[in-house]
Fold each of these.
Amino acid sequence: MTDKKPLEKIEGMIATLMQQMKIPGLSLTVVDKGKAIYTKGIGARSLKGNLPATPNTLYGIGSVTKSFTCIALLQLAEQGKLKIDDPVSKYINFKIGKEDKPILIKHLMSHSSGIPDLGIASVLIRRHSFPDTELFVPMSSADDWLMYANTAQNEIIDEPLKRFFYFNGGFALLGLVIEAVSGMKYTDYLEEFILKPLAMKRSTFLREKFEKEEDRMTAYATEKGKIKESIHPFDDLIYAAGGLLSSVNEMENYLQMFLNEGTFKGKQILTPESIKKMINPMIKVPQGVFGKTYYCFGLGRTEDFFGETLVTHGGSTAVSSAYLAFVLNKKMGVVVEGNVGATQGGIIATAILASLLGKNPFEDYPTLRLESKLNQLVGSYQSFKGINKAEIVKMGQQLYFKDPEQDCPAFPIIPYTDTKKNYKFWMPAGINKFPCEFIVDSKTGKISFIFERGVYHKIGPIKPKKKK
């Protein structure tokens, strides 16, 4: 990034996001033209003792692990030990699906099996990280999981490749396939054939190895807007779906492997043909910020990210999170990791990539452009002489209109567009769209809100409620 000004602005955005979202610490690495140009830790890897986050801090990367699992399967396919077009039932005791159109390995790799979420991650994350919310579903072994999954025939909505359902349980099944085919434990296979060749020596799935490391995250949970120390969920059943812990320094090696068509420092992890398979669209997913988006094998793909193909995957364990994003054609990529479940890594990573592509992310990136617009509208409002009062509040990327003097729900206010010059919004009213509008005076900066018969003028920030 030759021009430092965009990066300085993004650093400011990161600091603001961390404060707003209550993110104790995060780490990131940025690669451009095949070289790391920026690697940094920001904030605290542990609030106790105020220990700083570093590029070597180990975080749980959640579902970014899914791409590792797909690499293992493609390696085994390259060796002729399985075919990704094989039925899953060929290797493990998996019984559900339509007889004439069975669920294949590639369907689980791409969330295109037609099976919806069956809750394996919810059950096990609660069990390990939020024990007060235990659900008491029998799920303590692979046999338990297969027994549970095999009762879900009636949950199948569509035949394979017809509907996208993000299915964590499918990757738990794929982990069992890897074990059945390789004759090794999933974690041993990953370490031997992926982590070691990539010099990811500190990356691990195992609690005992993680806890020996000094530079490791403390996991934090967000509950009702407050942060509290928690526990990372270690469990064999969720390793293949989201169990890896790594640092951005070691994840940079993983990123470089993709940018070099499957090779890292002369060691071939996958053939170029298998890398192409990994990022080939398998099923369309709900439209993203930049238009057409697909799920491939353990990775997502956006067709038009400022004219380039963007490959991404996020991950969250509810107490840690990560985001991987890269543009193969430009040999550029970003990895972001943090020690809460919502580190906003997707916004950070893609904003950086936009700046590397010569864009101003605060003007050209729809998400950040909308964020900037909404933030200026939040506040306390009142009508003529202060007779009627209102609050415009923001939760996530959504504004709400609220009467602070009435015990009634807040109403969502939805923008017609993300452009900064258009301040026309609407509220849902049954099947109708009720129009409303903000007026921003370009000279004075004063803001007014027009809603039905009333005009409300912004008078300042929302004042915190007094405790009774």
Amino acid sequence: MMDTVGVKAAMSEISQIKVVAPNVAQAVIDQAIQIHGGAGLSDDFPLTAFFAYARILRIADGPDEVHRGLIAKLELRKHAARLGLPRG
């Protein structure tokens, strides 16, 4: 989408991906830890390190809440323009 419409037009989708992908990764890793039980927390598997990295990703490129706020702002602006409402 960035290649076809540009970064500015794809900003909402970019922020959506930055929220969803790390959250999904963290959820998958959490399930892997659950499946492995106590071993999932041991040094026998790298799952705890993966979990920590996934958590860091949720902050590294901007906290989730910042991205969620931007998504809300962009989506409300888009729909306000479509409905002829004042931008605000």
Amino acid sequence: MYRQLVQAMVSNCEDVGHSFVEEARKIHYNEAPERPIRGNATEEECEALSEEGIAILRLHNIKEEDLN
């Protein structure tokens, strides 16, 4: 079920890569169109987004072979 959840989320989000933090802030502050995005951020960056009131969901990279 976890695999299906992640696959559904990934297929419905725009991959903004390493621009995730910048793009999340732009969306939050109405400087970019609202849309689901995904990308990379450090733990510190995630904490900073949270402190700004920007809701994110962190998914850890899991190898396919680790999923049952």
